[in-house]
Amino acid sequence: MAIADVTVVGGGIFGLAIAWECGRRGARVRLIERERIGAGSSGGIVGALAPHVPEQWNPKKQFQLESLLMAQDFWDGVAATGCVDPGYARLGRLQPVADDAALALAKDRAHGAEALWQGRADWRLVRAEAYPGWAPESPTGWLIEDTLSARLHPRHAAAALVAAIRAKGGAVEVGAADPAPGPVIWATGAPGLAELSAALGRPVGAGVKGQAALFACAAADRPQLFADGLHIVPHADGTVAVGSTSERDFEDGRVVDDRLEPLIDKARALCPALADAAVIERWAGVRPRSKSRAPMLGRWPERAGQFIANGGFKIGFGMAPKVAEVMADLVLEGRDTIPAGFRVEDNL
């Protein structure tokens, strides 16, 4: 058993990112994963890192903004340390504009982004013909383009984090293992939410199933698309991911079923480049959704020296750099920088 200053339980994006950040700050880190790295939704294929709309601002939106703005340096550091490419690129996102009302709203949001995004990213309108053969048809002829959205490949990102943690001298152990004495951070995804609910005697969240598809399509330099509720995300390896469903009623979260096929058909109709592209993988997994819908971070109630980082749901990869920062602040330095609405007690 490795000697550690901090033990992280869970090999998903929150656990891996926190372990990396703690190791980067000089702590001896031990990460334990019971099954396999990315066993839950962090082993998926989509990897859309996209912001909330720039209006009705709140702490959750601010936290996510800060995390997205940190992402380039975060992932560059991971790649440089472990020599594994996480597939990160900030290439923006396009959304079709449905009608005049949506066009007016988009213009208002552009002003909001100018004020709120610190001049470090834009929310703007571009003509649809600027992206021939890629962008969905837009009834108004306009697209919203934001330059804050980014992508990464979830599986490549997980592998990059494992390599970086080990390069810093941390231990990554897969299989049955118990935490050693000392601080323990539980980042155990949907199963962890169920265990935490049982331990506290009240529901604090649950798993939501998602299904996604992977197309063979070389579009590595293209922005991601968001249209009709669907994310279309090009990766650097010659694939395009499409997802995902949100299913609360399911028997087996890892089984792909016929609820995915309408998404595949919709993607082909929306994106000209996917019309004849082959589907090379269909994926299903369960994402951890906290009661508050925000990440659930902080001390485990009534368990001294134990902490929780859970509830990434659909935005876990986008939130991971900032989640790692505030959890390392808390566990290593005793500084509580977790914003209101993100605390464990907000879900009780």
From TrEMBL:
Residues 5-330 form the FAD dependent oxidoreductase domain. The keyword Oxidoreductase applies. InterPro entries: FAD-dep_OxRdtase, FAD/NAD-bd_sf. Keywords: Oxidoreductase. This is FAD-binding oxidoreductase. It comes from Albidovulum sediminicola. The lineage of its organism: Bacteria, Pseudomonadati, Pseudomonadota, Alphaproteobacteria, Rhodobacterales.
